[in-house]
């Protein structure tokens, strides 16, 4: 009885700690949401609260009226889908052959792949390489250089190792080639880990902006995060329009509210994707944790 009571108290403490951690993590997002819904004068007077009395959607209207922001959002969504599918294909094609013991040079290939995980050439050599490949200032520069994550490949390869070898052998006895084995056996059994890796790749591409900042000068191909970076650094048309409105007696100091609205506008879409992949994500990240 005492052990049961102690266990309940311990579970309650753990639950409270988890709720506190979640609250701390959500605090910045709630602050941004409050700023985006607060009227400009509240921002000027530093009277922003989590439940603004005079809520307004003016900041969101300014963001939606900017055609470049909407175009950047659509382009980033398309880019994320393309990069996720392409990266998954490359990861599968890299991980599956490494499960074959008869693959010649398997050890050397593993060493070379792991070497790239810990060591990189740096920014300047990468820039020179991309320029020599002719993809500088090209949308392909956002897809090809980072199409493969070695960490994700190792996760997928480890899962492929956990699939019973007898399934592969039985298929090969029936005349199946490696491609048929991959499509008919390995991929259907790997839905959880593939969904997890897809989430990793999608979030990484959606939040990425450094490659576009370094290798792209055409604003038409700027992803949403780079657009948001420019807004926060007073380099976008939204910020310029806000300053002109403030100078002309319009909405004073609305830039903070629009920055917050832009952050929400760029963050919410990728947050919506997570609940759909949550069950696969939980199963995928725990792969290999329990050995039977």
Can you lay out the helices and strands and say which pair or pack?
Layout (H helix, E strand, L loop, with lengths): L1 H36 L2 H5 L13 H8 L1 H29 L10 H13 L4 H11 L16 H13 L2 H9 L4 H12 L1 H17 L2 H6 L8 H9 L4 H11 L7 H31 L7
Characterize this entry briefly:
With 292 residues, the protein is mainly α. It contains 14 helices and no strands. The chain starts with a helix and ends in a 7-residue tail after the last helix.
* Proportion of beta-strand residues: under 5%
Q: Which value, in Å, is the CA radius of gyration? A: 25 Å
Determine the N-to-C terminus distance.
Answer: 33 Å
Biggest pleated sheet: none
Structural class, by secondary structure, is mainly alpha
Helix content: over 70%
Proper CATH architecture of the domain at 67-235: Orthogonal Bundle
Give the integer mean of the pLDDT values: 78
- Ranges where pLDDT stays below 50 over 5 or more residues in a row are 246-253, 288-292
The first-level CATH class of the domain at 67-235 is given as Mainly Alpha
Succession of helices and strands: HHHHHHHHHHHHHH
Tell me what the structure shows.
- This protein is mainly α.
- It has a domain of 169 residues: Orthogonal Bundle (MetI-like fold).
- The protein contains 14 helices and no strands.
- Helix 7 runs antiparallel to helix 10 and helix 10 packs antiparallel against helix 14.
